[in-house]
Amino acid sequence: MTEFLERDHRRFCGIFFDVGRRLAAGSLPESAYRFEEGACGLNWHLNAEEQVLFPAFEGATGNTRGPTVVMRAEHLEIRRLMDTVRVALGLADAYASSEALRRLIGALSAHSAKEVQVLYPLTDRAIGDERERDDLVRHMQASSAA
């Protein structure tokens, strides 16, 4: 489970770094298109965690006041930052877009570190059985259709 989610983190972070390179090169339309690609993936990831992973963690541990509360709050902030980038790109403001993207990448980096170092390993241990973890990943993958 950790590998699946960590790989997803690297994928959308890579897309956002690419958006930054495109912005620096002055390609606002390409930046906006690429940003939406990353935002779509990140939104799916956040939703899959909130709808599948967090309830599984809470059910397995009985802990509904721990790391998932922090993660949900950070998801709200990440969504707000994505909206800020989207607005700046829509205004074709390269400077504001770059600054908003920088803040988003910073928040994502800090958030990802917490998930990869704390939440994902705790979930792997709490669920324990490899088959159950594989089922959890499949359930998260299937949630993309919703």
Please explain how this structure is put together:
With 146 residues, this protein is mainly α. The protein has helices at 2-24, 28-61, 67-90, 94-127, 130-142. Helix 1 runs antiparallel to helix 2 (28-61) and helix 2 (28-61) runs antiparallel to helix 3. The mean pLDDT is 94.
In short:
The chain has 146 residues and is mainly alpha-helical.
Question: Multimeric state of these chains?
Answer: single chain
Mind telling me which CATH architecture this is? Up-down Bundle
CATH class: Mainly Alpha
- State the share of residues found in helices, binned by percent: over 70%
Question: Could you give the order of the helices and strands?
Answer: HHHHH
Number of helices: 5
Largest sheet: none
Task: Please report the total strand number as a whole number.
Answer: 0
What is the CATH homology-level superfamily? nmb1532 protein domain like
As a percent range, the share of strand residues is under 5%
- Can you tell me the overall shape? elongated
Rg for CA atoms:
16 Å
CATH fold-type name:
Four Helix Bundle (Hemerythrin (Met), subunit A)
Q: What is the distance, rounded to the nearest whole angstrom, between the alpha carbons of the first and last residues?
A: 20 Å
Structural class by sheet pairing and helices: mainly alpha
Mean pLDDT: 94
Low-confidence stretches: none
The domain tally reads: 1
